[in-house]
Predict the structure.
Amino acid sequence: QAQLVQSGGGLVQAGGSLRLSCTASGKSFSPRSDAWYRQVPGKQRELVAQIVYVGNPDYTTYADSVKGRFTISRDTDWSTVYLQMDSLKPEDTAVYYCKRATMNSGEYWGQGTQVTVSS
């Protein structure tokens, strides 16, 4: 069974850094794009960063709120996608989810991981 397994996250002080990982397992994926979302209670899930595999180099986009602080990247075999988060702010506190869109197998979501930034 195909799945995405997240790791990383936790508690960090404002100004600190964390790295989230999202590893695909269980089947052979043909990824079209990967993305990181975040959600706080009572609000809609927000797109944070996306990497689209349309050529060389990959095409990346970021929410304005994280631009210049977060970086999305991947392993050379597309097995793991990362979100490097620097200069973290309390407003970055949320549950973070990874999502993979595939060429012909639909979309998959990770289980979510809590990121808490203390002031």
